[in-house]
Structure formats: structure tokens, C-alpha cells
Known about the structure:
The protein is α/β, with parallel strands linked by helices.
Amino acid sequence: YTHAIQYSDRLHKRNHHPLMPYFITGIVDGFPVFVSTPKDPEAFRLLNAGKYKATCYRYEMLCDLTGHILHVHGPELGCRNDARTRKNAENDTPMHPQERFIGDRAYRASKQVLTAYIKPNGGELTQAQRAFNFQFNSVRQRVLPNIGSNLSVADSWLFCRWKLSSAMSKTAPFSARISVGLPGTSTREHQ
């Protein structure tokens, strides 16, 4: 039996955590799929991810609070950050107005993702902020190992998706690959 990936599972009654029982329905994190270094300088620039010091495509995995996969978004160019990837995934992951996901500080710019407080420049966190961060991190750390184990499932899913798109990427001219977001995409058309 394989659990089907269903975004609607985020609303299931089993998907909760005692420290965050309301409104938090998932945890989001990005991951790379490394690719060989392209010879084309423009493709290298678009696929190069400074964070990983490698060329890759970026994906985003959304899991419920028990670690089951809810959604996988991608591919995105390696030069994109997690916040940009989340922005591009928002149309695929509609939410109720008060609903939020939790994520690391890379998602601070997203209105859909709740992140831990950061220490202000030259200041300290309040006691309430430190207490929140402690609870927040305990929930995140409970789920992150499950995301790691789910990457093998995601790898299989990505391989199937790659097989479908690889025929086009091998036969289509460079200009056709731009329109579908395959290797060598133009920065102007995907910003």
C-alpha cells in the first residue's frame, strides 16, 4: 500500500500537534536535485545554487505534521531561493485565510509560512519570543526527519516526472525549452 499524495490531507483530524493545535497544517522545506554542470554559461548561471555550491533544480516538499507528503513543487531553477520557490508554489497550495505552514527562516517573506523569531540587530528576543521559538523548533524537529525519509519517495516521483519531460528536453530546441521551464530557461520569462 502506498499513501497517495493528497494536498487535502492537511485538513485531516490526525494532522495536529499539541503545541500547535489550530491553523498550522503543514511544514515546508526545499531540497535540491543535483544535475551535471552545463557547458552553456547561461544555463550554468540559472542552475547554480550558491547555497549548495553545485548546479541543481530546486523542489519544495510540503508535509503534514505527521510527516506524510502533501505536495511536491518543482522544478525551479537552482538560482532561486526557498522563499521564491514558495511564492511560485502558492497557486498549487490554496489555503484558508487563517491557515499557515511552518518553515525555516528562509521563508520569512512568505505570507503562508510561519517562521521562528529572529534576534533584532543589536537587540534580544523577549521571553515570549524565546518560548515561542522553543515550541516552534520542537514541532519542526519532530517532522524534519520524516521529510528526510520522504525524499526517497520524492526521488521516485521526480524520476517519473523527469521521464515524462526528458523526451521533450532532448528533442526540443532551446527556445521551446524556455517556454516550459526546462534546462536553459530564460531569466526574464521566469521571474
